[in-house]
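Handoff note, outgoing to incoming analyst
You'll be picking up this chain. Sequence as last confirmed:
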Amino acid sequence: MRLIEVRLPTPRPDELRAFYVEPLGLHHLPLVFERGESATAHFAFNIPENQFAEGKAWLAERVDLVTRDGRDEFHSESWNADCVYFHDPDGNVGELIARHNLINASDVPFGPDSLLELSEVGLPVPDVRRAVDFLESELGLALYKSDGEPPFSAVGDEHGLFIVVSEERPWSHGGLPRIAPLRVKLAGDRGRKLRLPKTPYTLTVVPSDRDA
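Most recent structure output, in case you need it:
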């Protein structure tokens, strides 16, 4: 799955834009900030799988890294990935993740263009199983990982995942998720617009030969 754009509500859209453009240099960010109540969202960017150390150092020069139990970097055996987290001024949880299953190694010095793609968007929901069933049946997405109580499921693939969580389950690196009117644009086989049941989430599918 390829995630093209996510529109996030925030009471401070100008401040959020400035945060991503100025310290992080992300002028072509696939995040659009619109005025509204804070979403306290989660999203992740894939980075070259061989540049985790460089990516962490680059991020740490610009923002405070999230720490847990005295650590500021995290490895997942089951995901075969290394990741680092940060909070933006609105409390959203951002992540840089090096997925070692992907063939995306680079020898270019790490910079804003090393954030290769938006690879995760969090979707807190009242019923995880129902949401996963909808994503599988309506969008043809596959279940990637699932565990925990309150439940957690990742749906899609390593290029693009919906992180579907119970609204009662805190994000693993800070903040309680809020159900807010996110609007997600993703590439697909045919154009259409869907509403995830029992949520305010709008999913707009764009034919994969164009992004608008």
